[in-house]
């Protein structure tokens, strides 16, 4: 309770100190006063392209947005967990299956942490993964097509927060549960949480060639909250680290009851050891329902498979596989430096950052120097694993990234700043305010062995006066700092979409050359595709009507459709026969409640329409595709049933 009071006092104190920033509308004085050199640094001239891609999670928008660095220009929103009318994602028959879960169709989620695939610990630019927090899911997105190719649901999990971080050869994408829950789920009193609930840490294998996901095993841990995670790399490759809070196992009044222990844990998991155990027949199969949704590029169609079983592992059955590292004050971020030597746990309720040493951890394990156990899992001694403490002088540390030059950058939510400090000496070398209340930060490659330490992007939770007012609801705000010098320099603000929690970035040259420009018509294996406009037709099968429709500038074939009756189920299968890059056609029909379709050249997309009224009803192309776009239209005649 004492600590909680201190925390409140700290917040109030900081609010007073920083009240000059933002709350009072002190124009000009608090905005980091940018000069013309900052303008030059972010200016990307018309027709020129950015140096980096930045992928920002959309938070409760459920999607992923793509920006350029240093310009801060937004290029695209990639729909992942949410329906997206702009492209018909989650509305078209081809993409609806991507949003199936064991709870039914769930067309949104809360997407927090993107991570780019790696080879030998360096970004390889093949895929980007992102987690859905709410209805636990992991998505894999192609960085060639920038489309969601796969979504796998995670059973036995709830609040899929310490996800989706990947091992250094993309062997696994890892998902940890925020909420511990009864496993398997069952009807039981909530206040019997303690020692009965479990926290699942899920290791999902990634097939090396095509990236297909498969749950390899779930480690069923004690009922703590597993907040964030990071892979080991270099020397620590083969390990994975997870911050925990609520080691008190409280089930209500969490802000007080889960903050009692002076230290929670970082859980260190030797996944290679568990992999061996599982490969030699270890683990227990458990009944579990979860959806596995795969989008096939050949047919341009998603399919859902419902899975029935998952392999679980009891950590106490694999000696030497799991240890707890005591870490002060409810740690949030769990970040491993590029060498893999340092594991940084940021206690939310602390001013200091705790840095653990991987080598010391191994030495302590080898020497069996334990300080008791929790549910059969050995606890290492804090002093034995501590590499150093960063006396930050900030409040509310959350996340840390690295520049590859021996520096770390940590965000402080309460004191609204990014603090730069040195690995090894633990001294603070610079600090810059953020506007305001920063969550994560991102350096391209900052989550790998080879960061590109030129810029850091701070993602701020509170926007206040940074932009022209748009009413009570503001978009969130990100800021770009030049970190190429000794001191950080704030060079740009840009608004973001949804709530970016984390982001991932990479050099443009890694992705741009491999970016797919067009789907080839010859490769289109969609069952309702037509190879050319002359094959367009209407087929009736009972009450189902299938319209095989072609689009090419500037007409639909067929464009006058008769013989449809009220009560029919009409499928418009639209194939785009354009052969030129970036010439989509759209399709929409009056009264349609399933959004329009956007069909890229070489693709086929399907929309269902259930006519309710007799009449002659227009449809039209929704994407301005040629000078005769407004001529791109047609009619459907609907007769009485
Ligand atoms: S996060 Cu998800 S609550 Cu600090 Cu990674 Cu924002
Ligand atoms: Cu096709 Cu407008």
TrEMBL record:
| The species this protein was found in | Flagellimonas maritima
Q: What name appears for this protein in its UniProt entry?
A: Nitrous-oxide reductase
GO annotations of cellular component type: cell envelope
Q: Which domain of life is it from?
A: Bacteria
Write down the top EC class of this protein.
Answer: oxidoreductase
InterPro entries per the record? Copper_CuA, Cupredoxin, N2O_reductase_N, Nitrous_oxide_Rdtase_Sec-dep, Nos_propeller, NosZ/Cyto_c_oxidase_sub2, WD40/YVTN_repeat-like_dom_sf
- Report the subcellular localization: Cell envelope
Query: In the record, what terms sit under GO molecular function?
Result: copper ion binding; nitrous-oxide reductase activity
- What EC number(s) are associated with this protein in UniProt? 1.7.2.4
- Keywords of the record: Copper, Metal-binding, Oxidoreductase
Mind telling me which PROSITE patterns this protein's record contains? COX2, PROKAR_LIPOPROTEIN
Query: What NCBIfam families is this protein classified in?
Result: nitrous_NosZ_Gp
């Amino acid at each position: 309770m004492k600590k909680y009071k201190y925390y409140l006092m700290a917040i109030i104190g900081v609010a007073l100190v920083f009240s000059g920033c933002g709350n009072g509308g002190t124009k000009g004085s608090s905005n980091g006063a940018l000069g013309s050199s900052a303008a030059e640094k972010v200016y990307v001239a018309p027709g020129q392209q950015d140096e980096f891609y930045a992928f920002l999670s959309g938070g409760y928008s459920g999607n992923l947005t793509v920006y350029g660095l240093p310009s801060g220009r937004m290029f695209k929103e990639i729909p992942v967990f949410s329906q997206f009318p702009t492209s018909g994602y989650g509305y078209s028959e081809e993409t609806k299956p991507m949003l199936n879960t064991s709870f039914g169709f769930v067309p949104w989620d809360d997407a927090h942490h993107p991570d780019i695939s790696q080879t030998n610990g360096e970004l390889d630019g093949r895929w980007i993964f992102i987690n859905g927090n709410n209805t636990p899911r992991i998505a894999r997105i192609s960085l060639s097509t920038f489309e969601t190719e796969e979504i796998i649901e995670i059973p036995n999990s709830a609040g899929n927060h310490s996800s989706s971080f990947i091992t250094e050869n993309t062997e696994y994408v890892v998902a940890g549960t925020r909420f511990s829950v009864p496993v398997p789920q069952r009807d039981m009193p909530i206040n019997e949480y303690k020692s009965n609930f479990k926290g699942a840490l899920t290791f999902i294998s990634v097939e090396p060639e095509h990236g297909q996901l498969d749950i390899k095993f779930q480690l069923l841990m004690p009922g703590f909250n597993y907040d964030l995670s990071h892979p080991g790399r270099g020397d620590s490759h083969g390990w994975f680290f997870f911050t925990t809070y609520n080691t008190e196992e409280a089930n209500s009044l969490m802000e007080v009851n889960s903050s009692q222990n002076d230290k929670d844990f970082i859980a260190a998991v030797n996944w290679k050891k568990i992999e061996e155990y599982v490969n030699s027949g270890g683990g227990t199969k458990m009944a579990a329902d979860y959806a596995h949704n795969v989008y096939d590029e050949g047919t341009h169609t998603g399919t859902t498979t419902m899975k029935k079983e998952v392999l679980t592992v009891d950590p106490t059955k694999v000696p030497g596989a799991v240890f707890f590292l005591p870490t002060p004050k409810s740690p949030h971020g769990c970040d491993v430096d590029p060498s893999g030597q340092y594991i940084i746990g940021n206690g939310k309720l602390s001013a200091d950052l705790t840095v653990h040493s991987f080598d010391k951890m191994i030495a302590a394990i080898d020497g069996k120097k334990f300080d008791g156990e929790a549910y059969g899992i050995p606890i290492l001694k804090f002093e034995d694993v501590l590499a150093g403490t960063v006396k930050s002088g900030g409040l509310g540390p959350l996340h840390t990234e690295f520049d590859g030059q021996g520096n770390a950058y940590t965000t402080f939510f309460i004191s609204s700043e990014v603090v730069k400090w040195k690995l090894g000496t633990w001294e603070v070398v610079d600090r810059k305010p953020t506007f305001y209340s920063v969550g994560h930060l991102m350096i391209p490659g900052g989550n790998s062995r080879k960061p590109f330490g030129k810029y850091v992007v701070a993602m701020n939770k509170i926007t206040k006066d940074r932009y022209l007012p748009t009413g009570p609801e503001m978009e969130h705000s990100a800021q770009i700092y030049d970190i190429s010098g000794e001191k950080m320099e704030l060079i740009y603000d840009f608004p973001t979409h949804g709530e970016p929690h984390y982001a991932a970035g990479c050099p443009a040259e890694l992705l741009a050359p491999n970016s797919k420009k067009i789907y080839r018509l010859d490769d289109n294996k969609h069952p309702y595709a037509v190879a050319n406009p002359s094959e367009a037709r209407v087929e009736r099968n009972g009450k189902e009507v299938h319209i095989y429709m072609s689009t090419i500038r500037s007409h639909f074939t067929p464009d006058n459709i008769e013989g449809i009756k009220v009560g029919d189920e009409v499928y418009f299968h639209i194939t785009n026969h354009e052969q030129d890059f970036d010439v989509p056609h759209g399709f929409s029909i009056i009264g349609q409640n399933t959004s329009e379709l956007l069909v890229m050249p070489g693709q086929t997309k399907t929309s269902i329409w259930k006519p309710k009224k007799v009449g002659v009803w227009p449809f039209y192309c929704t994407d301005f595709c040629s000078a005769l776009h407004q001529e791109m239209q047609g009619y459907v005649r609907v007769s009485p049933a």
